[in-house]
Q: What sequence folds into this?
């Protein structure tokens, strides 16, 4: 057992030393040589190493001829490495440095999507964690950044993707409200359930969850003895083809 642990430790130390050596050698290179190496890792799908190397490149040579390209690739490397917070921060810095860049619309979209990804990361999806613990401010920020892209670059090829992102955000927010409304209904808090259901009706009427909100409204009105209101909701459901 001792020999096994020692072997694993030795292997780990060798790997660390090897990484340090590669980075040390990398830092001695020119900006063009650094770009070739960093981009090679990016093309090979070694995103963590690529993001590390682009970070070193951008810190050491912040204002060389191709610094704009290097920073854009750094953003992409962070995103592909699932380091969404850093991708967002780098996007923000890029837009400060190059507000008139021809790639500004792409960077703005990356910023919006990185914020969306921060709302619920891949670990949370994997383990199926409680969605109530998600950071809703990230979701709202993603929507706002997407809207900024649409407003500033209405002819951008990323506008349809930004609009789709907004639809995703609205669907999630609608689901959040339906879940809360259902919780209140189950607890007998029917007025609170009505209030939450009405949020979906007024703010997310295009959501696929519209039938759910109407159903909760109908049941809540019935529980409160408001039969005529419940019947009105039933008629509205029938008109719209909902069961």
A:
């Amino acid at each position: 057992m001792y020999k096994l642990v020692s072997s694993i430790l030795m292997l780990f130390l060798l790997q660390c030393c090897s990484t340090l050596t590669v980075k040390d050698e990398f830092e001695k290179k020119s900006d063009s040589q650094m770009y070739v190496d960093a981009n090679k890792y990016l093309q090979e799908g070694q995103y963590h190493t690529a993001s590390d190397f682009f970070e070193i490149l951008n810190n050491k040579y912040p204002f060389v001829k191709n610094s704009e390209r290097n920073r854009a690739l750094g953003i992409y490397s962070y995103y592909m490495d699932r380091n969404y917070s850093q991708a967002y921060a780098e996007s923000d810095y890029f837009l400060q440095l190059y507000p008139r860049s021809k790639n500004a619309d792409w960077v703005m979209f990356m910023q919006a999507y990185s914020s969306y990804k921060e709302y619920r990361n891949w670990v949370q999806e994997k383990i199926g964690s409680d969605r109530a613990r998600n950071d809703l401010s990230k979701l709202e920020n993603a929507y706002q950044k997407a809207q900024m892209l649409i407003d500033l670059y209405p002819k951008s090829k990323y506008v349809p993707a930004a609009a789709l992102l907004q639809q995703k955000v609205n669907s999630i927010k609608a689901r959040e409200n339906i879940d809360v409304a259902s919780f209140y209904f189950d607890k007998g808090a029917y007025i609170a359930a009505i209030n939450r259901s009405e949020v979906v009706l007024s703010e997310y009427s295009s959501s696929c969850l519209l039938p759910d909100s109407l159903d909760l409204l109908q049941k809540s009105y019935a529980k409160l003895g408001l039969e005529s209101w419940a019947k009105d909701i039933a008629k509205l459901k029938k008109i719209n083809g909902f069961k």
Remarks:
- Residues 24-81 form one domain.
- The radius of gyration is 25 Å.
- DSSP finds twelve helices and no strands in the chain.
- The chain has a mean pLDDT of 86.
